[in-house]
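Re-run with default settings, no changes from the original entry. Doing this only to confirm the output is reproducible before filing.
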Amino acid sequence: MIMSPHETHAPRKPKRRADFWIALVFTVIANLVFIGLIVFSVSWRNPTPTPVTAELFAPTPEPKPLPTPEPPPKPPVTPPPEVKPPVQPDPEIAIKKKKEEERLKKEAEEKARQEKLKKEQLEKEKAARDKAEKERIEREKKEKDEKARKDAEQREADLKKILDEQNRRDEQKKRDEQQGALARWKQSIMIKVHGNVNMPPNIESNPEAVFTIIQLPTGDIIDAKLQKSSGNAAYDDAVYRAIIKSSPLPKPERADIFERELRFVFRPKD
């Protein structure tokens, strides 16, 4: 407990001691003065006697007892510290303090929440960027792979086209060669058959007789079938006999063009 300057007991001790000594001195002086007055009064009332030889025994006056000195002062007792009742807080101040604490708490919570949201937002943005980057890389890789695939397909298609064209040309060339060889083979057969035809007389115009010749690979004729008559039976018979007479027929220059059945158109003026 804090004492006020008026409540301090430090100066009281020296003051009490000074009072004690002053009182003691005054008491001693008063006793001496009192004794002196008694002696003086006795001396003043008794004149000087004639000297008589006598032995007097004057009673010795009993000394007046000195006043009992005061006991030394007791040390000052320090009073117990004053216990002041606790100061009751002002309700308004307590309410304001509580509101301020709640406000600070809410601000701290809001700040923490905002920081958490900001952190989550940054993490989401980073995740979104990473995802977008991953998707971009995958998309570019996919586009690159797709382009490479299409390029490969295009090259393959171009190569196939070239090969197909080459094959077509080769096939066409082969067909042309086959057709040419076949045409030459049939022409040789026609020449041989025409050489064996005994042309009937009085054939007017240029009638057309169509025959199918059936032969063996050796050229031996199995049969000759009239597919279309020329309208002149004598000419049809003459061609039939010429075909049979021409057996064996000339062989083809290439074995791959052999045909078992050959169709011929015979005209007398060809």
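The longest strand covers residues 221-228. The two ends are 156 Å apart (CA to CA).
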